[in-house]
Structures are given as structure tokens and as C-alpha cells.
Design goal:
single chain, 115 residues, alpha+beta, ADP-ribosylation fold, 4-stranded antiparallel beta sheet, 3-stranded antiparallel beta sheet, 9 strands, globular
């Protein structure tokens, strides 16, 4: 069974990564030493906590198994295990890239993006 994980990324950062064919992470990822991802069950809370009201975001979907040993699930917020990638994300490993629309109430609309 394949597991999908998600990265919320400002579009401008992602477009810069496309030129390199890899994403080295947002500033918070670089500072922490790994790229933060969320599972489908976690991504809405991640958006609410870290990206509330933000426009111009993309939702990057990756099949966890493609990332190999560089992907580790580690305790974070509330003891939940979050996926952390200890390597650059190769764009060839990305399954989908979708705009993450903002609703009028300032929350993001994940309809059709995350099961």
C-alpha cells in the first residue's frame, strides 16, 4: 500500500527549485536540517498552524516509499510521528503539484487534493 506525504510550499520557492530539479527546503527546513512533510491526517493542521491566510501556496504530493532511507518518521507536535526528509527532494520523486486555494475564511481548501 502506498503512503502519500505532503509538503506545503510557497510557489516562488518551488519555481526556483524547478530550475535545479530538486527542492532543498524552505528556510525552516534548512535551519532544522531536514524537509518537513505531513501525512494526509496532519496536513490540514500544518496549514492552519503555519500557513493561515497565506496565498500563493502549492501542495506537493510525494509517495513516501520513493524517498528511501532518507525519510524518517519522528515525534513532533503532540507526539505525532511526522515524515522528515534528510536529503534534498528530487523533483522526479514528486507525484503531483497542485495550487492550494485559500477560502474566504482564511483556511485552505484541500478538496480533491488529500484523501
Amino acid at each position: 500500500m502506498r503512503m502519500l506525504i505532503y509538503k506545503i510550499v510557497p510557489e516562488r520557492l518551488w519555481r526556483a527549485a524547478e530550475a535545479l530539479a530538486q527542492f532543498d527546503g524552505a528556510p525552516v527546513d534548512v535551519a532544522d536540517g531536514y524537509i518537513h512533510f505531513s501525512t494526509g491526517a496532519q496536513v490540514r493542521e500544518t496549514a492552519a498552524k503555519h500557513f493561515a491566510g497565506a496565498r500563493g501556496l502549492l501542495l506537493v504530493t510525494v509517495e513516501a516509499e520513493r524517498l528511501g532511507d532518507a525519510l524518517r518518521f519522528e515525534a513532533s507536535r503532540g507526539g505525532d510521528l511526522f515524515p522528515h526528509l534528510y536529503a534534498p527532494l528530487q523533483l522526479a520523486d514528486v507525484l503531483r503539484i497542485d495550487a492550494l486555494p485559500l477560502r474566504d475564511d482564511g483556511t485552505h481548501d484541500f478538496s480533491g487534493l488529500v484523501p
